[in-house]
Request: fold
Amino acid sequence: MDAGLMLIIMIGLVDLCADVTYEGGRSMIGQFLGFLGATGSNITIIMGVSEFLGYVARLFSGIIADRTRKYRVLIFIGYLLNMIALPLLSVSYSLPIATCLIMLERCGRAVRIPARDVLVSYAAQSTGIGFGMGLREFFDQLGAIIGPLYIALMWYVSHDYRMSFAMLAMSALLTMILLYKALSSRMAHEFEHRSHEYASLHTAQFTSAWWWFLGAVVSLGCATIDFQLLAYHMQHRGVMDAGMLAILYGCGMAITAVGALVLGKLFDRFGPYSMIVVLVLVVGYSPLILFGNVMSCIAGMVLWSILYACHGSFLAALVARLVALDARATAYGISGAALGVGWLVGSLLRGFLYERSLIGVAILSLIFHGSSIVLFLKSFSQYEGRSR
Reply:
């Protein structure tokens, strides 16, 4: 088997087990925060701030990765922080402590993702950037399917949030064992050795297409509603209970897993404009969930899941196309920070609007979604003009 493909699969298996841990936990965080006394506005602000910190921290970890070339060290530290946080919710008895652990989990992801994505993009040179990124995301989302189903089973067996979170420690341990194997592989060593030959970060050139792309990413972040708020909303309205919501999230991650592979192949075959078609198709997810019955909520979650697949496949592939390898970790960090800024702004606005106007929440999402499409189109046209 091709060494690049093998490394992508190994990293994918690591992400599969990691997602069992943190996506399993995140499928029940909204309900758990409600159990600890949080309101809908509290939840959307907590999740928005934690996402913001997690995404903005990628800027610094990306710069550190490109300056030190210690990609494997950063990947290991990031996964370690990521894996210890959510199982510790089992011993969290106050909202502030739970909030700190949620933020720690997001920051752990921030430390590892830029360095990991550069490693995967290097390995994907032999498979196609879109397919390579999509394949890693496919494994990632398989874990996101298993995790919520696993924690839903724990919930139905125990009806105890703390027991459900405690059982995530097993998948966290397996993640770290597989990660050690992946980072010890020949190609991972080769990448880090060769990275010292790359040009200095100071020589990196970011084009106008890149800056339009960042604007689109910010807008897309504003448009994307956290599942935790959607889950709280559906439970609060009596549409589904905590266990069914975890199952719905798992099914959504199944759609995201398949979607990541399909979108990656579409990117390699038809280029970035395929993303525009997908964004147009999923634009109506928010009103379906916010105002619908069980069936329309399920339909809305299908669209939300496809949108989520765009984050992991299309955006990662676009960064690899727009920025050279010598500054790519920094670029992944910047794009992650841009997404985090958008997520925070959108979450704060939704936190203000949620108790006042659900129609306002839906309109806000639609406006930002439409503006992201316009900005992506501008970025693609700039890139094509520069390439000619």
Q: What stands out?
A: DSSP finds 17 helices and no strands in the chain. The longest helix spans residues 3-35. The mean pLDDT is 84.
